[in-house]
Design goal:
By secondary structure, this protein is of the alpha/beta class. The chain folds into 2 domains: about 210 residues, Alpha/Beta hydrolase fold, catalytic domain (Rossmann fold), CATH 3.40.50; about 300 residues, Alpha/Beta hydrolase fold, catalytic domain (Rossmann fold, 3-Layer(aba) Sandwich). It has 24 helices and 15 strands. The protein is elongated, with a radius of gyration of 28 Å. InterPro entries: AB_hydrolase_fold (IPR029058), AB_hydrolase_lipase (IPR006693).
């Protein structure tokens, strides 16, 4: 494969495309082949202008999965090179079996045993496809060589006599990776890889004489060998960011009750590392049932070679000009002097890990909005402030993302001082008087069902937009909508409330205690989801003087009367109607 297959593939593509170089991304053995080829051919090293190695297997596999037992049958595999374990129809049998609901847990466990895929990183419905993909077959000799322990850097060992005939020596020669002098190699790897030990990665990096173009350790401590390809969170948000020309950083932080949250930091590649620390940090927090992607998908767009961000309409015509501001707020802020961080609260697709609870257990899902307020949001704010060495943080919350900040400020005045400013978009502050017009007003009838079964909300057949954005299908969190009837702590029922709170009814979050003058409200008149809750919220904000309403930094009602709850994020003209105002407010500071 190193001597014939890979060179033939490279040469064919270059000839077909009339180009002199190509980019190459390899996974696992796909990297080993390229490293071997580069070590024996300077010509092919020059033909690869970017080599990205995902989970680079180079030195012997330190296998922790059941594949380590291949050692015991390597003699059989050498003797019978026509022994193909996954022949048709055997190869087709497993994926078909795995489509059966009774066999899926078995197939899931099989993937864990062989390639180490963690359950919470799998898309459950894709298990048959995973099984099908890992049973495509290979030669027994390739299997023997790949499982050759510390001799993985050797040519194939045919035995002393045959080695003498082929190589002119009794032992198979080694590939010398120190000969590789390319500076266009990037490596992406993880600590939890069951097939590729960190010791081998470090050893290989020491072997290379040239500095790597990028050296990236995946921050998720549970990422395994095939999670680079198939993990639930391997794409989507990150693909969105990269497709627009930006980069990103993943930051993982643990809450006091053990939930592992992921913050995604957007990186503008045109801003130098020295200047990045001078950028103003800003945290964008999504609403109910959504994720950090909500801030990025209003329009297609890209960074040009000068670092300018342009957006395109449905016909791919450039929209951004003096009369049009971009609609995707995350990208607009990242090109306007801000250090943009995207929040993903517990249980959302990008924050599914826990220090000891299984995501499939009911214990994992026994949390309410109170935990977002008391644990998740403070941890996120403090992490960003400490990481960026700033003393204050700007914050934009949409819907529930605004609600949890109001609740936190009402409970802890120290966070009032840390946020400058707080922009609340369509803040979902409700009371019994609020007039919700959408079908969600009927969700109260399901309250007891959701309380009794605190597992994830079953996936629904939705449009591709909803599949991308509202990636959090969890039942317990729908109870937040009931809590909106009053901004109160979670209602466990009279007896449990008495045990937890010392009273039969849950206490309320008293927003009249908030005395910040750095709060701006952006809302619409005809919001079908939150009704007239903004007016009720404004009447509750008393500030220092209880006889006077707090002076808002800005009180902005969108002039377009057709706007509703999500139009603040995704309307075709949200750039002019919303984002322009957001930048004006932020520029006060």
């Amino acid at each position: 494969m190193v001597k014939y297959d890979l060179p033939a593939e490279i040469d064919y593509i270059l000839a077909k495309t009339n180009r002199s170089t190509l980019s190459y991304i390899g996974h696992s053995q796909g990297n080993l082949m390229m490293f071997r080829l580069m070590s024996i051919s300077d010509d092919y090293m020059k033909k690869i202008d970017a080599f990205i190695a995902l989970s680079p297997v180079t030195y012997g596999l330190k296998v922790t999965s059941i594949l380590r037992h291949y050692y015991y049958i390597q003699g059989l595999l050498k003797t019978y090179p026509n022994l193909i374990i996954f022949k048709n129809p055997y190869r087709l049998l497993l994926p078909n079996l795995c489509q059966n609901i009774l066999f899926k847990p078995v197939c899931q466990y099989l993937l864990y045993l062989t390639v180490g895929m963690q359950k919470h990183n799998m898309i459950y419905e894709r298990i048959p496809a995973y099984i099908d993909a890992v049973t495509m077959g290979s030669s027994p000799w390739n299997t023997v060589q790949l499982n050759g322990g510390p001799l993985l850097t050797q040519y194939f060992d045919h035995g002393k006599e045959k080695n003498m005939q082929i190589y002119g020596q009794s032992q198979a020669p080694f590939y010398d990776f120190s000969r590789i002098n390319s500076t266009r190699i990037a490596m992406i790897y993880s600590e939890a890889d069951c097939l590729n030990h960190m010791d081998n990665v470090k050893r290989f990096k020491n072997e290379l004489k040239m500095k790597l173009w990028d050296d990236y350790l995946v921050a998720d401590p549970t990422y395994d060998h095939n999670d680079f390809l198939w993990a639930v969170n391997s794409g989507q948000l990150f693909e969105l960011i990269e497709s627009r020309g930006f980069r990103y950083e993943q930051h993982f932080l643990t809450t006091p009750d053990g939930y592992i949250l992921q913050l995604v930091r957007m990186v503008n590649p045109f801003i130098k590392t020295v200047d990045k620390n001078r950028l103003r940090p800003i945290l964008l927090h999504h609403g109910f049932q959504c994720s950090g992607t909500i801030w990025l998908i209003a329009m297609n767009g890209h960074l040009d070679h000068n670092g300018n961000y342009y957006e395109m309409d449905e016909k791919n015509q450039i929209l951004t000009n003096n009369n049009h501001m971009g609609n995707s707020l995350g990208f607009i802020l990242a090109t306007s002097g801000f250090d943009v961080w995207l929040a993903n609260y517990r249980g959302s697709i990008y924050s599914t890990n826990h220090t000891h609870l299984d995501i499939e257990s009911s214990e994992y899902w026994k949390f309410s909005m109170d935990q977002l307020i008391h644990y998740d949001l403070p941890v996120q704010i403090d992490y960003i402030i400490n990481h960026t060495k700033h003393t204050k943080l700007s914050y934009i919350g949409h819907s529930q993302g605004a609600l949890i900040m109001f609740a936190l400020m009402s409970e802890n005045s120290s966070y009032v001082e840390k946020i400058e400013p707080f922009i609340a978009m369509a803040p979902a502050f409700c009371s019994y008087q609020s007039k919700v017009k959408s079908i969600l007003k009927y969700s109260i009838v399901l309250r007891n069902v959701f309380l009794s079964y605190p597992q994830r909300f079953p996936p629904m057949i939705t449009s591709s937009l909803l599949r991308t954005i509202c990636q959090n299908y969890f039942i317990k969190q729908l109870c937040f909508m009931f809590n909106y009837l009053m901004l109160e702590y979670f209602d466990y029922g009279e007896s449990e409330n008495l045990r937890i709170y010392g009273q039969q009814t849950p206490p309320i979050y008293d927003v009249s205690k908030i005395n910040s003058t750095k709060i701006a409200l952006i809302y619409v008149k005809n919001d079908s989801l939150i009704g007239n809750s903004v007016q009720i919220l404004k009447s509750k904000l008393k500030g220092i003087n209880p006889d006077e309403l707090v002076k808002l930094l800005d009180d902005y009602e969108i002039p377009d009367q057709t706007y509703s709850h999500l139009d603040l994020l995704w309307a075709k003209n949200s750039g002019i109607n919303v984002n322009k105002k957001v930048l004006q407010i932020l520029n006060f500071f």
